[in-house]
């Protein structure tokens, strides 16, 4: 039942038999689909999984393996994330989005995001003035 249908809201999938190759990769993709309000997916395996997953990942082409489609270096990912968060913090230094987020209300996240967007687009925000000439 893993082929021929799409179920983005699927969060947890239980495996009671070993899967291999493309079928295993497709199974992982089923629980990894994005969907509103869904942050992650869970694959619970009662059958051997780790060895079969390593073999399935080994089926990628040499070019895929060279570009590391999975298993990026965690230190590089952390450094990039920290850099991006620092950039965002500098851009939003004049807008207290945390206060808006913590103020509560009906949709605090949307209020904080729309407020941040308005701040970034405001001509009065530092850095938004065009250079002379």
Describe it.
With 133 residues, this protein is mainly alpha-helical. It folds into 2 domains: 12-66, no CATH class; 74-121, no CATH class. It has helices spanning 21-32, 50-57, 62-66, 74-91, 97-102, 108-121, and strands spanning 12-15, 42-45. The chain has a two-stranded parallel ribbon. Strand 1 (12-15), helix 1 and strand 2 (42-45) form a beta-alpha-beta unit.
Key features of this structure:
single chain, 6 helices, mainly alpha, 133 residues, elongated
Mean pLDDT reading:
81
**Sheet with most strands:** 2 strands, parallel
Helix content: 40-55%
SSE pattern: EHEHHHHH
The poorly predicted ranges are: none
Class inferred from helices and paired strands: mainly alpha
Q: How many discrete domains?
A: 2
Q: Helical region count? A: 6
Strand content: 5-15%
Strand segment count? 2
